Amino acid sequence: MAPQFLTGSDPFNFIPQAYAQIRATDLSHVEAMYYKKLDYKEVECELCPRKCKVGNKERGYCGVRENEEGTYYTLVHSRVCSAGVDPIEKKPFFHYLPGTKAFSIATAGCNMNCKFCQNWQISQVRPEQVENYYLPPEEVARYAKGNDCVSIAYTYSEPVIFYEYMLDCARAGHKDGLKSVIVTAGYIEHDPLVELCKNLDAVKVDFKGFTEKYYKEVCSCELKPIMDVLVELKKIGIWTEIVYLMVPTLNDDMKDIKRMCEWMKTDLGTDVPLHLTRFHPMYLLKNLPPTPVSSLEQARQIALETGLNYVYVGNVPGHEAENTYCHKCGKIVVGRIGYSITQMNLNNGKCKFCGEPIPGVWS
Amino acid sequence: MKKSKVIIVRTLKVFKNSEKVDFNLLQEMVEKALLALTNEKDSREALFHFYNPSDRIGMKVNCLGGKKVATSPEVVYATFNLFRKAGFDDKKFLVWDRSNRELKDAGFSLNSNSGGLKCYGTDSSDVGYAQDFITHRDVGSLLTNIMTDRTNLQLNVPILKDHTLAGVTCALKNFFGAIHNPNKYHGNGCDPFVADLNSIPQIRNQQKLIVVDALRIQYHGGPAYHPQWYENYGAIIAGSDPVAVDFIGYGIIDEIRKKHNLPSLEKAGRKPNYIFTAADPEHNLGNTALENIELVEINL
User: Read out DSSP for B178-245?
Assistant: First the structure.
């Protein structure tokens, strides 16, 4: 039986058939940007805080960077394993160009291993274990424009691990007037983050939990570097939204959520949108039930009471907390059902009813 | 606790020159190891301790790192020849590892269709990984279809060498080549991941015999080849307890390191703790206590 990793409908259905024939028969061989050479052909990756020490002919934790005779290479530059045209609300971005489309791409690989991963078929595999298509940055921009997209989204897996490709796509996109947005867990070192943000327009961070224990045991990662990244994003001033996937019994302690909201208020400010989203059993956490909607609502209430202005409930289509409410007058400024916009009550980024500026990038 | 037996058969006469080994002598070494392991006088009887002719036997090799630091084809063929002489059917054997490229680079001849000994990797177009996750404690992986569909028992033929992250790679760690995501399990010196993976029933129950290639040993800087830390050791190690085999292998690496004035793996901060984790009551995969290991050394 042939390897079966990709699920769902054909991820390349938007690409004309002739182009879809151009399947990558090999992996890329582009030198990585952030690493240092050690003695005896070893290297140390400096892209993410994991800082993998990688021996000759071995790969880092992400599975997509390989040391060949002391030079570190990315194997996934222009090797796309999943792509689609998505509403920007699907990322989700609720305060960033609502109602627009994002040309969304991913390569295989991830520098984490979250037990609830919804896309493990592409994120938790090596690039040779999926079908890859050759899609150089200029073609990404061309297909984004051709599909009436306003932005390119790096998403589905963990874009940090295809850093060089993402950077080249963002630069190619900007030349064509396209924005670039990233959907990431934020596990990245300071220098590559700063360089990346010069070429991005918005960031959505999946904030997995608010304890080191949870990050370590459920995500094989650390909390502190992610907090540092969020603070750095605030300092840089790039538009940022945060998603918090609430997993029953593992990160749904309301005391932790209260602590997280207080930290956000203090260190990030009250205007960063927080999306509290519903977990569905997946990957290595099939034994848990979906998050009760009441838990999401309780967490939202805590966040609002803490002083955060824009708190959403996600993965519950039709919920009233999908709407954006003006934090001053309380009226709906952006109405949503699922990924669809039902009302837009903004004038030049201000509430149509009371004139209060609503934080975000609206046009 | 039941004692584990580990056999080391050693001679430097096995090296004809820097590249070639004396195949007849190598075969004699493997045979002597199996006879000593089973207390049999006939290799056919020895093999029947572990396998029956109806079994489909996977010979798991370790080809990562390239030819000089991979399981040598000669050790595999010497072992396979004993089965052949014992009347086992060639078609029931499959030499395998993660990828065809790595097998070829190590000197194996790929063969998926024609008669004789089959040899191919999980990345062959019609192989791949099983659909269902195997999980145990900290490990969650997809297992190669070679173990789920194409073979029912394994003969582990690892190479013994130093490993920068794990300390040592030998029998237990060789099964990292059976899963789709080994890169996720190299943290903390691969501990407890190697032990967790080997606890999975499909691996624990399928592995019957281990024949280690310890002819040439990379005793520092592994798993890649570094000529300055590479020496002819001239040994075959055999056992059925992968923990005891790895424990003895760990000792050999440290012994060679000491000879070359290198610090022990423990002092170098690379003690292979996963071997000891594999022996703990929860994993119970074998022995590391010397009083529970019967070590037989045969010098030819």
Answer: GBS-GGGG-GGGGTTHHHHHHHSHHHHTTEEEEEEEEEEEE-SSTTS--GGGEEEEEEEEEES-HHHH
